[in-house]
């Protein structure tokens, strides 16, 4: 596996990811080409809430297990995207964090914050009250691989119950990702990140998926 560990890749990382109805041939090749990976990433399941803003495509916000994680888009290079952590927090979350980091990341008008901290349900209530924001439930079933020393996965994803399949490759080395895309047969597809996929499903972006 070289010097990379699944789930512990160092920044800055670049990623290719796409979404569609199926990637059966590419998934088969990814599994066959993969180096051995730890058993804990053979299959992972999670339930998350993505907070998407009609006014912002730069920041990717998700909540899992009572914790909020915001990543921000840095640059695009050779068709690959680089995202870096912007904020990590957990609920109950402080008014200061909401004022200084969370709502500015959404690029929407600040709600009236009268309490010192807010629970997850209270926060989701504020999201629901803002017509520019949507809270979207995302279920994931992910199968982890390692191809050309890049961290890869194939995943079944349900976005508000609508099923899609995703496939990805990420690494600090762009050439390794590009080789992996070619080797597994996904080089011709559009790079679609989670934020884009969620917005396409709920109708905030009017674009098709890769397959």
- Ends distance: 31 Å
Mean pLDDT: 94
Q: Please give the share of residues in helix.
A: 10-25%
Taken as a percent bin, the fraction of beta residues is 35-45%
Query: Can you write the helix and strand succession as a string?
Result: EHEEEEEHEHEEEHH
CATH domain topology of the domain at 14-22 and 36-173: Hypothetical Protein Pfu-838710-001
Give the class from helix and strand content and strand pairing: alpha+beta
Q: How many strands in all?
A: 10
What is the general shape? elongated
- What's the story with the biggest beta sheet? 8 strands, antiparallel, barrel
Describe the structure.
The model has no long low-confidence stretch (mean pLDDT 94). This protein is an alpha+beta fold and 211 residues long. It is elongated, with a radius of gyration of 18 Å. The chain has helices spanning 24-33, 95-106, 120-129, 174-184, 194-202; strands at 14-20, 44-53, 56-64, 67-77, 80-90, 93-94, 117-118, 133-147, 150-159, 162-171. The longest helix is centred in the middle third of the chain and has 12 residues, at 95-106. A hairpin with a 2-residue loop joins strand 8 and strand 9. Helix content is 25%, strand content 41%. It has an 8-stranded antiparallel barrel with strand order 1-5-4-3-2-8-9-10, surrounded by 5 helices. The relative contact order is 0.25. The protein has 5 helices and 10 strands, in the order E-H-E-E-E-E-E-H-E-H-E-E-E-H-H. The chain has a domain at 14-22 and 36-173: Hypothetical Protein Pfu-838710-001.
């Amino acid at each position: 596996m070289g010097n990379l560990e699944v789930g512990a890749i160092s920044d800055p990382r670049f990623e290719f990811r796409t979404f569609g109805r199926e990637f059966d041939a590419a998934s088969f090749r990814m599994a066959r080409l993969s180096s051995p990976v730890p058993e804990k990433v053979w299959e992972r399941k999670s339930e998350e809430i993505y907070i998407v803003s009609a006014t912002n495509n730069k920041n990717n916000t998700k909540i899992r297990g009572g914790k909020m994680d915001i990543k921000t888009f840095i640059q695009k290079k050779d068709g690959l995207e680089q995202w870096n952590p912007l904020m990590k927090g957990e609920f109950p979350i402080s008014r200061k964090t909401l004022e200084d980091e969370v709502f500015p990341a959404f690029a929407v008008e600040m709600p009236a914050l009268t309490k010192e901290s807010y629970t997850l349900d209270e926060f989701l209530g504020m999201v629901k009250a803002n017509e520019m924001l949507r809270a979207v439930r995302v279920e994931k079933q992910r199968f982890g691989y390692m191809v050309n020393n890049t961290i890869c996965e194939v995943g079944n994803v349900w976005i508000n119950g609508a099923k899609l399949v995703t496939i990805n490759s990420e690494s600090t080395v762009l050439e390794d990702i590009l080789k992996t895309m070619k080797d597994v047969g996904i080089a011709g597809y559009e790079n679609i990140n989670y934020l884009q996929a969620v917005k396409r499903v709920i109708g905030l972006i009017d674009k098709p998926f890769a397959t």
